[in-house]
Amino acid sequence: MPTPLQQDRSRLPATIWMLGGVSLLMDVSSELIHSLLPAFMVAGLGVSALTIGLIEGAAEARRRSGNL
Question: Which DSSP category does 52 fall into?
Fold first, then answer.
């Protein structure tokens, strides 16, 4: 049976749980924005699908080239 001191060491502090929760919410919000941005650009800004394709293609090319 673990002693109280050993039990305290195995338990994660509340701060770690809070940081993990914030990180999870940031990841979810980032994915939401990434998936909704093209729809906003078309509906809200009036950008053509061709322009969005060019922007996405340039971003992907830059990411693959290692400049980012």
Answer: H
